[in-house]
Amino acid sequence: MMPISMIAEAIQEMRDAAAFYEDRREGLGQDFLNAIREGIRKVQGTPNRWPAISVRSRRHRIDRFPYGLVYQIVNEEILVLAVMHLLRHPDYWKGREQ
Fold first, then answer.
1. Percentage with pLDDT > 70 across the chain
2. CB within 8 A of 31, min separation 6: which ones?
3. What DSSP string runs through 13-26?
4. What is the CA radius of gyration of the chain?
5. Domain ranges in the chain?
6. Global pTM value
């Protein structure tokens, strides 16, 4: 499996979304984080499987939540650029591309 890392903005987006869901219902934030972990495992297992959304980046849709992992393969590593809400400002992360 390829190593994976997340830029600081993606980590913050993940934390903010988890806090939002936890405020809605106890345990839902943890469910979100578990879904993110599962998405990361899927991306690591088959990084080229998920659809391209730009010349350099791909997106994996997270199960159960309206979020996606936006990532690139850079120097044999998966770099997560965004934990993106799929219904809000779809191109905001493009300035993060390597």
1. 100
2. 21, 64
3. HHHHHHHHHHHHST
4. 13
5. 4-88
6. 0.93
